[in-house]
């Protein structure tokens, strides 16, 4: 299992504490330093069953600069969204846990973390 985190994020720290409390084996990826490629983002989206706009932090300053709220949310715009996430990883919702069964979850709640642990 791997968890994408921003150490400054309280939701990420909470997820890590829960994983530790449960004795889970996991790898930490500080995705702001170890930025995912567009292909890695596509893979995680497939595992999540989500679209790039579903994991974009639209309230971030960078999102406002880019005007992402106005971008079309359709298949033809998917690559544009993915490119933005790869170029500005701060826009990626966090934490994201990739589970051992090949799925993934956006682990912003205790329930989501426990869901990943059960996979």
UniProtKB/TrEMBL annotation:
The keyword rRNA-binding does not apply. Signal peptide: none annotated. Keywords: Oxidoreductase. It holds the Pfam family ArsC. SUPFAM superfamilies: Thioredoxin-like. Belongs to the ArsC family. This is Arsenate reductase family protein. It comes from Streptomyces formicae.
